[in-house]
Amino acid sequence: MSNDSQVSVKGEAVIMPSPSGSASSQEPPLSPSTTSKPPELPDELVQAGWSKCWSRRENRPYYFNRFTNQSLWEVPVLGQHDVISDPLGLNAAPAEGGDSNGQRKRRISEEQGAGPNSIKRLKVEPTTPISPSTPGVKPWSSAPEEKPALPATPTTPSPAPAVYRPAVIYWDLDAQTNAVIREHPPANHLPPHPEMELLRAQLVTKLRQHYHELCHQREGIDPPRESFNRWLLERKVIDKGHDPLLPSDCEPVISPSMFREIMNDIPIRLSRIKYKEEARKLLFKYAEAAKKMIDSRNASPESRKVVKWNAEDTMSWLRRDHSASKEDYMDRLEHLRQQCGPHLTAVAKDSVEGICSKIYQLSAEYSRRMRQTHLSLLQDPPTEASASPQQSRLVYCYPVRLALPSPPLPRVELHFENDVACLRFRGEMVKVNRGHFSKLELLYRYSCIDDPRFEKFLSRVWCLLKRYQVMFGSGANEGTGLQGALPVPVFEALIRQFGVSFECFASPLNCYFKQFGSAFPDVDGFFGSRGPFLSFCPVSGSFEANPPFCEELMDVMVTHFEGLLEKSSEPLSFIVFVPEWRDPVTPALTRMEASRFLRHQLNVPAFEHEYRSGSQHICKRDEMYYRAVHGTAVIFLQNDAGFAKWAPTPERLAELMAAYRPSPARPSALSSPGPAPITPGDKDSAPKAADRTQSAVTSPGGHDDNNNSNSNDSTATTNNNNNNNNNSSSTSSTSSSSSSSSTSPQEKMAAV
After folding, report:
1. Sign of the four-CA dihedral 414, 415, 418, 422
2. N or C: which end of the chain has fewer CB within 10 A?
3. Distance of alpha carbon 204 from alpha carbon 215, whole angstroms
4. C-alpha torsion sign, points 282, 283, 288, 289
């Protein structure tokens, strides 16, 4: 049956006059393109993708499912035959007085051609998921001209092969959302294209190399590990430019995050100390580097005198005293940093600001170049459209839709190596395990509306994987903190006890629900993303927020949450998982603990809970979970209606804490991928935050003093930067109050 005979709308939502009252009193949502005519199907069928259509040829109504491409003459019944999980209908319950599937077949006139010329009217609709993982089925082809010709005469259908089923599933794509938003127009992002992602990957790699060279040439240091990834994240919080990854329109130009982290490694990067000899060597290196730096820079006579005198005094003490303990060396290092730190910062300030400014200017130039190239690939370049007024209609949240049609996409090759799907475009290969590849297929089927035949599926998956690969970086385990996630039992408890149905910070690779907020709406929208959560304004619903551990992002997140809770009188709840950093405490945690919307706070101790790895879409099964080496603060922010509906009662909190306990049957690494904890014996190996002197530095851009002190705290312990991405590999792996005094903010911020 041709699609042009489908008259009624196939929407995800039904109009809802007001989301107030109980969930059962809410009418189901319509998609933005629908009319306000009353629904002709039960709410459950509309949510499952069914809509009532009209056949011009048969002059009668029929029912079409936009998720599965099924067409039925009779009203479908939920649960009888799900072609995704049961392609052959073997588990379908037989209907009374009907055939085995409980659904009447189409008329024979639809299944057979009327003659040799019937090929012009015949259209084959898939009734099983088109999966390249099934034997006998050709993988999706990105080139429309390579589609096989349709047979002129009907043939006997062969049994449909079973869909690939992952051994372990880390998601629940059947959970329906309770997030209600105001309808909004399609987004003006440029549609993704493999050529553009390839160009973006080359330019971002080039920008990373420039950053490395500038740090070496100007300051003689390696760039702080993960600092470029944190710079991308911190810039995108305030960026107003067009590129989805590279910042191009930010104010201030100089990034406070990048400035802090480079300053923390001047004159040398200080590492975690365990033994006396290491402490002695580190003290000598710091004194030597400080003296060399002050001699080679244009410093004032007073600064030069103070630094040189303290450095020489330290070297003399090291030559005289060979019986000092590790604690003596560390105390001497703290004293040296207090005396020399402000003077070294003053002479390096202009140089470090130059590094930050140069990287931003290159990023803006690359962004402009990519946009020009991208526009040339589009058949219909976008025009400047006036901002449409805010829609007043309330609907359930729906995936990001792009205003511009997608151009023809080039072919992407797919093959499987054991349980890994490999996608190749122009020699560039990206990989994802077969289970997550199957998940992307389902998300695409649920969310994409412009590609029912999956002709662009492989190209869009390649763009998605390449985008996240570029954002992560090329280092071993680098950037995986961007993708960490809560364990499955915790999500199950959140659903049962608090009605959670939406993740504020996720991606198609690590999401648990099919509705989530993510960083890249242009590529993630085809797989269910509702866009960046800081641009997402729900009126009601229950949400889980596990943000990347970037202080600037967490601070803006709290502002956004409080604004939403202030405006809405409907039930609205945010359950926030953040690191419990206490020495010094972060502004976001302080603000949430003082918020008038705070209803309860849980503190989960270190080593007593787990997280899923940030590289879960490619890692081995026995590396999926790891023990958190730091504590986690779980904060409940709710308005009055949300508190009445999802109150954190002792019974509910007890089940949540029970779900957080690691399963003894599940393998998990105690300290992988996070850094090894500091034992009480090594606590003195890092200078205390209260004694650090970098707080005297004024960070450019007017960054607040709390964040400055956080960065300064990291100077003596920041060489955990080598493990930064590990500390962040769960976006909720955090520092407990018992261990936060020995944890540097650079470890803390490792999780972009």
Report:
1. negative
2. N
3. 17
4. positive
Predicted confidence at residue 481, as pLDDT, reads 64
Q: Is 13 left (phi over 0), alpha (psi -120 to 50) or beta?
A: beta
Query: What's the pLDDT score for residue 437?
Result: 95
Contact 511, 524 (CB under 8 A): no
* pTM of structure: 0.70
Six token digits for residue 11 = 């929407």
Rounded Cα distance between 752 and 743, Å, is: 16
Q: Could you tell me if 197 and 466 are in contact, meaning their C-beta atoms sit under 8 angstroms apart? A: yes
Q: Which tokens go with 641?
A: 């209606």
The residue count of the chain comes to 752
The Cα–Cα gap between 67 and 265 comes to: 53
Q: Is 211 helix (H, G, I), strand (E, B) or coil?
A: helix
**Residue 217 has what DSSP assignment?**
I
Residue 723's pLDDT is what?
38
Q: What is the rounded distance in angstroms from the CA atom of residue 177 to the CA atom of residue 77?
A: 21
Distance CA 458, CA 565 (A): 40
Structural tokens at position 383: 């025009």
Contacts of 392 (CB under 8 A, 6+ apart): 182
* pLDDT of the residue at 39: 53
- Alpha carbons 587 and 555: distance in angstroms, whole number: 7
478, 462 contact by CB (below 8 A): no
Q: How far apart are CA 638 and CA 568, in angstroms?
A: 11
Q: Give the model's pLDDT for residue 374.
A: 94
Q: Which residue has the tokens 């499987």?
A: 416
Tell me the residue type at 456: K
Predicted pLDDT at 79: 56
**Can you list the alpha helix ranges (DSSP code H) found in 174-300?**
194-214, 227-238, 256-264, 276-296
Chain Cα centroid distance, residue 752: 10
CB contact set of 427 (below 8 Å; sequence gap of 6+): none
Concatenating the DSSP letter of every residue in 422-490 gives EEEETTEEEEEEHHHHHHHHHHHHHH--S-TT-SSHHHHHHHHHHHHHHHH-SSTTTTGGGG-B--HHH
Mean pLDDT by 10 residues, the chain (752 residues): 39 40 43 46 78 85 82 76 50 43 39 38 34 37 36 37 68 94 93 96 95 94 90 93 94 92 90 87 93 91 94 92 89 92 93 96 96 87 58 89 93 93 95 94 95 94 95 72 82 96 94 95 96 95 92 93 96 93 86 96 86 80 75 94 96 93 63 36 36 35 38 38 37 35 39 33
Q: Write the Ramachandran bin of 479: left for phi over 0, alpha for psi from -120 to 50, otherwise beta.
A: left
Closest CA to 72 of 34, 39, 41, 107: 107
- Angle, helices 326-377/227-238, rounded to nearest 10 degrees: 50
